């Protein structure tokens, strides 16, 4: 299959070589579908509630990644056996959820056991808003596209017995239970319960409602359900269905169960096309139907697809690229595309959405969006800056949605999906995220004091009353978190609280709230407690204040459990004090020692490009005068080594676009090395020229241009910098400086400026 | 517990010794709850859609009978651990179904895993329409009563944290899947899918809808659901809920799944009473609610119970007993009570009921009942005669319901529950059942020709078009069924077809349809093919017409699999030619040889009182002049040996009242030894006098009296018989003779009349 893809991509490139390619044409949705990128190739519109994906991560001997291993994506490029196309998905995440409501066309005698009806795919084509493949086992061509809250599939069948399966039982989510009702011979409705993302908050449960409609009335519509397993019981000798899938040939009342589905059965002529529309809602079946009625009213497949392409070109078209290779352009536009997958629209076409936590139905004002999927730990680092540059209005909408969650539940969230808090990963991500938005001017419509108090509540409420920081008593007093139990994430947790509290402290300072600032800043400076001079690294500390004995700074590599750190070793966290690199340098005693140690990360292979904690490392060299060239060197190295126009072209979980954002910002030569500080480190751009059309509601200038002069594969270093044609000193530039000036010109050279 | 029961029964007897006992007072619902009787002790009204039962057949080391063994009842007297009270049940059957919608009061921290919240019972009291017990683990007094389509429970709680659980996941039925919605803090609604009775027709699925309402609003109402088992998956290391019951503390949208439930949570004062009403429907949630609203409107627990007692006295009061012991009276009234459990009312209070097979909603005319639970193989033998004597109108209603099923589905059913055909056991039971009704005058409102054609369709339609007799090609041509596969039930199946076709043949004869009569009768005479003179028994025959080699006539005892016979040995079937005992005697060559062989059944222990095929055996002696005393002897022996006023007081599965009917008819001294022949064998009655109030719509006389003169424990033989005061010759009397005369007097003696 890999070969097939490359051939298809090559053909595609040839076919378009002389045509005018739109930004959407550059998108390659296969990027990130291997190497644990956990993105999916199926269609969606920007921030669509509905996205489709082939589901091929079923347990099979041939599959290395599957749902019985650790698997957080419905699709990996390398797998073979596919059981259908999901309608709701999370992209780039590290835990399984959603990835369900699976449509599958089949032929021949009806088979509903996914392990038995699974098929390989051939001739996969994935574009922005479109996916197609031949389903080998059935000789069916499957094409699909989407609107915000619906999907549309077009199946071309061979002659004979054909079926459209809607599998409600399988999926990524580890929550269970579904309900379905046959409405007519061309429509079913129901819901499936999803949620339990990352297992931290088992009470965070997400019901997803659906309506499925076929273009042709079926000859019969039949439920199926996995039957109980009686292998432990005398009944096993009697029941012919124990642990089997039973097709209900006559039962037409509503059905419910853990593992159910519905089959539409047809006799098809050769080449007969049957289309399927799926409407989804997080509120109700009625709303799922209304979403379908409104968004697909009198539209055929091609019109829906054309609308999807238009929508993608609108959001991707804010950036124009000159120079660079076709692959690099594809990487860039696909990276931007990945940043338009999450958050997604939660409210229905009529404005209904579930209130945070309670699930009660509320209604958004017309034209306003309730955005969801705040994967805090991932997105606070880069997303506000991507938003500021490429989609300020949407970023502001996200800030408004965050405040709405606060109003509804009493707290800014930590990791929210579909109005439920999942508490995933460490820290208190809303604080650096929202302060970044505030400093970047992306909190229009939000009262500053209300915003500040919302954040202060997370930071300052006593632990016992604190839904987000129930563990912060010791931290609040002592400014660090001791190692209490083996493999706890104490240092990682403290680092995230530091970043959060430092961010809020900066806002407190700006607002003249001196006492708050001092309290918060004092906490953030607590990181020094972990610094072990002997290692030049952060080391877990025991409750009595002494260092944990038996410290091995490489323990924790490859996501192995380790004392004090989460998903990494001490090396991956020890420089993650982005708000005080100069302070860290001081702890080292000399700039040289700091730079040597940071360089060791890269040169000795301690660095992990695939996860967030250390992804800022290459940029920290720029905090040491004379070492900026190392930023330029390692950033270039990382882009070349870890990124590419290929399924494995992301270094790890895309994390709701964060890994893609690292790529895009690095390719542009500007990177926000400190969250919540509206400032970029400047490095060597990839393209000769990137032009960003700026939103006039947010900026005086109509565009921002970042130019690279003399950029060649060898010229990876910065020779000099000009801002709006005038010489610019240093390697740091504020967001305001940059966007006010409108033009940043970077002269490149093959000689590092040591 | 056994001891406790006996003590309670004794107390009860003393308490009532000097009061006027009503028939309902005599009912002991514990009869049949041990020794595989599979009756239940909980409350119901006559033919109630709803019946309650403690559910204590969960798998536990202490339980000999439980749902992982073969278990077709929610309750056995001998078990200890109880998980609540079911609201829908089948009584006396041999396969698991229904036995679900389980209410349970508990106290202390909420526990929803049935294995963990199970409790012993103390002080069980069971009466017609009432059951109570102390739930030991929680010190809760649980009382319950019922209306036709609803139940009412009254729980007296101690002080503290209390719960009312509604368990939708557990039950006897092996179908699965439930749905529930929290309507308010005192009401839930939903459905559970049941069916798959006896595993013969997996497509026969029964949805049961419910509404549960509490008298006191709960402080919280919470769902629970058994979570998926991830023991085979990497997720096991992450999920804290794998294979556990999860309580949903915040989720309030509708829930669905294989194993779900709902908890109403309270703080109760000491002695606080909370009542729970459950409405059930086989049509819809709305109808379940309407049933509840209509049948419990403004009625308190005591009023509902009083109505139930009145209803029981109305139907049991048609019989008045004189003589006999208190235990015998209890046995008799409880036997009659068991005959009022099934069939039960299927239509809702508004008349809605599910159409046969399709499940489409139809409506009964006002005042008419659609009765369900036609357990054909069991009930065709005795039930029409019980109906003729004790409840002719209801029996006629059942015949009307059977015709309705025919009109809706195209066939008279074989084994119907809740409008679904389950094809359980052998034969074509509707034919002997309906011809019996016709000969007994219990088919008012049914056109005779329509009825005849309905039956003829079952009997004569070619196998490939025959939903009931898909296997009858060979039989129709050769008049027997050969043994084709090991352990098939070929002889049993043929015997049932013989009885069915003989019955219909009798009706054909009566209607002057001579050709039909001859065809049908010729089939019935095919039994001779199986008669092996060497054994004097029926022996399986191979397709080539020769006897099966290796015949062992005792093989098949104790329900072991055997070639040719179902649930029994050749001994249990070889005399089951009730329509042609004289013919069978001829095959034996001499009456003596026949009587010797039949006697051997009893004397050598081949006879099985616990199942239908041979239950007529004791009466077949009366077909041989001079051997009638053996009927009197063995019937008396069977009544003494297999029946009693105790939990083990039925010889086996009550089979929807059939085993109880054997007892009652035998105790009255009249037994219909040939199905569909409106005639009784006369034997020695148990009571001095049984007076049956006859229904004036069906009989000229207002009562039927059967007297025993000189009946003592020793006088078990008949000396002479008088009909309406005149000498009566012989031991057979037609139903018409008997009811026209109105008085049968049997003089008893201790000397057999040889």
Description:
The structure is a homodimer of 754-residue chains. Chain A is an alpha+beta fold and 754 residues long. Chain A folds into two domains: 2-314, Distorted Sandwich (Beta-galactosidase, Chain A, domain 5); 317-749, 2-Layer Sandwich (GH92 mannosidase fold), CATH 3.30.2080.10. In chain A, 29% of the residues lie in helices and 23% in strands. The first copy, chain A, is built from 21 helices and 34 strands. In chain A, the strands form nine sheets. A nine-stranded antiparallel β-sheet of chain A has the order 4-5-6-7-16-11-10-9-14. In chain A, strands 17-29-30-34-31-32 form a six-stranded mixed β-sheet. Chain A has a five-stranded antiparallel β-sheet with strand order 3-8-15-12-13, with no helix packed on it. In chain A, strand 25 and strand 26 form a beta hairpin. The radius of gyration of chain A is 26 Å and the shape is globular. The model of chain A is unreliable at 1-17 (pLDDT under 50).
Which two chains form the greatest contact, residue counts included? A-B, 48 and 48 residues
Per DSSP, the total helix count of chain A is 21
- Per CATH, the superfamily of the largest domain in chain A is GH92 mannosidase domain
Which regions of chain A are unreliable across 5 or more consecutive residues at pLDDT < 50? 1-17
Which class of secondary structure composition applies to the elements of chain A?
alpha+beta
- pLDDT average of chain A, as an integer? 96
